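Q: Two folds, back to back.
A: First:
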Amino acid sequence: MGLKVSNQEVEEERDEEGKGLDYAKRAQWVRAGVLGASDGLVSTAALMMGVGGVERDDQSMILSGVAGLVAGACSMAIGEFVSVSSQYDIELAQLKREGNMDQKHKLPNPYSAAFASALAFSLGAGVPLLASASVSSHRIRMAVLAGVVTLTLIVFGALSGCLGKVSRVKFICRILIGGWMAMAVTFGLTKLVNDFGILLT
């Protein structure tokens, strides 16, 4: 009987711990990290596929990916810094009005947010670059690029669902469809511009 009560108490403690977890707050960090990484992955891959669709030169395709990584990481960092800095100023002003400055250490750090955003984007963007850099054939490179991006998006979707305690299938489908659409539109429009000489005359 004593053992039974003990086990029951353990289960209750576990339940309380589960209730204490703030999945909404954790989901915000998950969303930021996955969003940054998937943005880097998809935008860089789409850029490389767009260039690869009209230019078979290996160097041009790789350089477009490098340029996308650097430009995207800088853009993400600057955007996050401005956004979090604004949030910091608003929350700091509120603490001053309330006379509760001892809570200042809990405010978001713009520099950390900018670094994390740039890092997440760079990690995602590095995937298509590394995957295509080791392939010599243009056709195989394009196929490998699409395959690697698809697999990585599935991993991102599953990870988001797991950490956010929601349906993994929903996350995977959502992120896959968005990624495929971005690559298809970029590839198609770039090829269209090249074929018809739009904006080039």
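A: Second:
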Amino acid sequence: MSSRLLGFTAATHTPFDASGQLRLEIVAKQAEHLQKQQIPRVFIGGTTGESHSLTADERKQLAAEWMKVTRGTPLEVVVHVGANSLEDCRALAAHAESVGARAIAALAPSYFRPRSVDLLVDSMQQIAAAAPATPFYYYDIPSMTGVNFPVAEFLQAARDKIPTLTGVKYTNSDLAGLQRCLKLDDGRFDVLFGCDEYYLAAATLGVQGGVGSTYNFAAPVYHRMLAHYAAGDLPAAREEQHRSVLLVELLVRYGFMAAAKTVMGFLGVEAGPARLPHANLTSEQKTTLRRELETLGFFSWIQ
């Protein structure tokens, strides 16, 4: 029901102040930064956006602010509306449509989990129906939800039940399953890859779009990677992908969420602390992280 979400979509952080409250005035800075990085689109309130640590009202405020600051700009907004309460999901979906979101996405309930593909389809159908004019993406992220059905089976079961089903945000290391999704119904579905550190492998299989957190602060690495790939220079493309691997490994050692928000601060976009149960970096850790990023060459990579 819509064109595909091509290119890199940044999964944005939710900005907080020092006390952990929403700091919505930072959204404009995030949007300005991403446009300078030639990022066409944002995915808000997802895993990177700490959605499960936000209230439903905070998520609506966040969506409304993003729509306000991007109005009249090329930057598109995809709103994640998944939660454990399907009623909350439906309310978030309806709100996202009312403010003009480009698309919505929802991960599976993860406490009381659907025990079959059919129950997953029924759950996603309820959410999508609350936004009947907005493209819907299923957000597959089994490492976080524990829901690990083959995504192609979900798409097959859902294609005639969810009229707005457009594709899937595939944050999953199963590349065989990825190929099944890409080939299903002659490539009918828009498959957005969600594992930044091996996006190049997905690109060789036919993926044309990705959603990820490192696109917030390392977009030039990925732009160069795809340019090299398009030019047939695989060694150069692999080198850029390896930089992504090194960067992700470094941030994971510090605790990815807090470290990634710290990196945004280094770039002049203060996203604030992460909410509990995430830990945050001490002043000493921030100093050490910056030193390690400099040693890695990160700040030259993103010029």
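Q: And?
A: DSSP finds 13 helices and eight strands in the chain.
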